[in-house]
Task: structure prediction
Amino acid sequence: MKNKDTIFALSSAYGKAGVSVFRISGPASKEILTTLTHGKKFTPNKMFYTGIYNPKNDDLLDTCMAVFFKSPHSYTGEDTIELFTHGSIAIVDILYKVLGSFKNTRLATPGEFTKQAFLNGRLDLTQVESIADLIEAQTESQRKLALKNANGDEAKLYNQWRQKLVKILAWYEASIDFSDNEMPKDVIEQSNKMLHDLINDMKKHISTSQIATRIKQGLNIAIIGKPNVGKSSLFNKIIGENKAIVSSIAGTTRDVIDATLDIEGFKVNLSDTAGLNEKTTDKIEKKGIQKANKIAKLADIKLYVIDNIKNLDYKKVDNDTIILLNKIDKKHNMNIDKNIIPISVKTGENFNTFWKILIKKIKEKMSFSNDITMSQQRYKEALNTTILELDNAIKTQQIDLKTEHIRLATETIGSITGEVYFNELLDEIFSTFCLGK
Result:
């Protein structure tokens, strides 16, 4: 599918920089490059140094590096130019005006270059969304996950499943068109086994989505405990600044204070919660405690801070809880459980031991294997719908109904990679892209 317009945009950030990168894609790309360079000869896929000129008055706009990618061997699958100019706002502004003056050219919309790559068969939707994730990546784990899925492994898996469904669908459609004598007697048994295997494989794959969600949205860590045990001091020490107010007055922290951190290449959302003072009669403090309990329930890891063993409430402890006995600088000769980490947030005593345990727990929660990891919520929803249709196909005995359920399942899984796509789906995906990509 070819784009009639030639589109252009600045692919680097707008502003003062060492280099600015312009991308031009479409049928008039080669003509534009020839005009801008005064007909300078160029070899496809080979970068060259050139002056670029204003076709209106022949003024030199800039000297730059340029490259021409000939269709279909380009990012978009169309003839494409990339200009690497000096990073001047004045140069960027004049180039916008000059490129817009060519016939049938226009400014690209956000994500339009990548959309053309999809429509021209250069990328599937899983690769498109992985590119968007790569652009948005802020941590090392986010970068690795995006790159891992940008190579097309997800698409290969989903297309393999879809091909198996197409094969089963062909069996059933043939059984409707031909008599029972012409069909293998064990077709239903074979297909049902294949459907059961597919469902199991899909469920296993869906379970990996939790890791991807944590990597992209961040691991949630909540600091909990009674008032005045040192929760806010711990929060401030972890983030490296005095964001939370520290006071000896009970109930100082009445709402959740949040911070987003990069710990060992992982995005972490840290929350300092209100002190769990069950005896309070203060309405605002009570609301803060309710919120603290809710945050703790949803947290991936809880840092349960106490300053006295007698105050430890084991109902608040599970496998994802790290118990910290704070203020050990004021205590001596303590006999405590090995699962409790004695520390002094004030002096830093034993803090490194706690930090190593925390990092180990974060890595356990966030690390993904070499298996294909589901990267998008959209895929999870599509596969859950696919599983539902396959379950219905197994349960029903009517061939025509089985066929319809499998056809719907095939279409749904095809929508993941773009084998089957809808304009609304494309609009939603590409609306997240930045201009020039």
